[in-house]
């Protein structure tokens, strides 16, 4: 680059700007009292921690009250759990699949059926009988964490399928 080169002039301008920014940062940091900032953060941190704990307790109490109301409305008692453990409301991943759920899990696992992306609709993806009207089964399987959002059978779904297969075998 020569002395009159526009690229060199731009480079020199950027270098001058960078030098000025560096000097400004040095002046700014020289004016800061780092001990004062540390004291404020520590005091604010303790107060923030207290507020977070209070908010957590209130939310926990609110959700426990809501769970109790939901269980009472459904006419079901809450399944007991040890002190301090959260209680699950709704379907459990270790439930035994119904025959319909077992058939759908089996067809999904084998690849005969798939879940249409973005829906709860079953579609045929291989040979054999296609899915008939099975409205709501995919959402039931997802609620139990047996089918992922992608439509794939999860590890829990495979375990449920195994339980279903064991229970449906003739003795």
Give descriptors for this structure:
171 residues, 5 helices
Helices, strands, pairings?
Blueprint: H1 6-31, H2 34-74, H3 99-110, E1 113-115, E2 122-124, H4 137-143, H5 155-168
Antiparallel strand pairs: 1-2
Helix pairs in contact: 3-4, 3-5
Characterise the protein shown here.
The structure is a single chain. The chain has 171 residues and is mainly alpha-helical. Helix content is 58%, strand content 4%. The protein has helices at residues 6-31, 34-74, 99-110, 137-143, 155-168, and strands spanning 113-115, 122-124. It has a two-stranded antiparallel sheet. A hairpin with a 6-residue loop joins strand 1 and strand 2 (122-124). The chain starts with 5 loop residues before the first helix and ends with a helix. The model is unreliable at 76-81 (pLDDT under 50).
In short:
With 171 residues, the chain is mainly alpha-helical. The chain is built from five helices and two strands, in the order αααββαα. The radius of gyration is 31 Å and the shape is elongated.
Q: Which stretches are low in confidence, meaning pLDDT under 50 for 5 or more residues running?
A: 76-81
Total count of helical runs of at least 4 residues = 5
Q: Please, what is the average pLDDT?
A: 75
Helix and strand sequence: HHHEEHH
Percentage of residues in DSSP E strands: under 5%
Strand order of the largest sheet: 1-2
Question: Which structural category do the helix and sheet elements fall into?
Answer: mainly alpha
Instruction: State the end-to-end CA separation.
Output: 90 Å
- Largest sheet data: 2 strands, antiparallel
The dominant shape is: elongated
Count of β-strands: 2
* Approximate helicity band: 55-70%
Rg over CA atoms, rounded to whole Å, is 31 Å
């Amino acid at each position: 680059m020569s002395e009159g080169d526009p690229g060199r002039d731009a480079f020199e301008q950027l270098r001058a700007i960078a030098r000025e920014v560096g000097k400004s940062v040095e002046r700014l940091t020289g004016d800061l009292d780092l001990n004062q900032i540390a004291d404020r953060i520590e005091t604010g941190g303790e107060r923030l921690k207290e507020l977070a704990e209070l908010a957590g307790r209130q939310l926990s109490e609110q959700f426990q009250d809501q769970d109790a109301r939901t269980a009472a409305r459904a006419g079901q008692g809450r399944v007991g759990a040890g002190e301090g453990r959260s209680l699950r409301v709704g379907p459990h991943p270790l439930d035994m699949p119904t025959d319909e759920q077992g058939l759908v899990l089996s067809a999904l696992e084998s690849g005969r059926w798939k879940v249409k992306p973005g829906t709860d609709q079953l579609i045929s993806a291989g040979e054999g009988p296609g899915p008939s009207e099975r409205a709501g089964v995919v959402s039931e399987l997802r609620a139990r964490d047996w089918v992922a959002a992608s439509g794939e059978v999860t590890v829990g779904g495979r375990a449920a399928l195994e339980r279903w297969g064991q229970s449906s075998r003739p003795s």
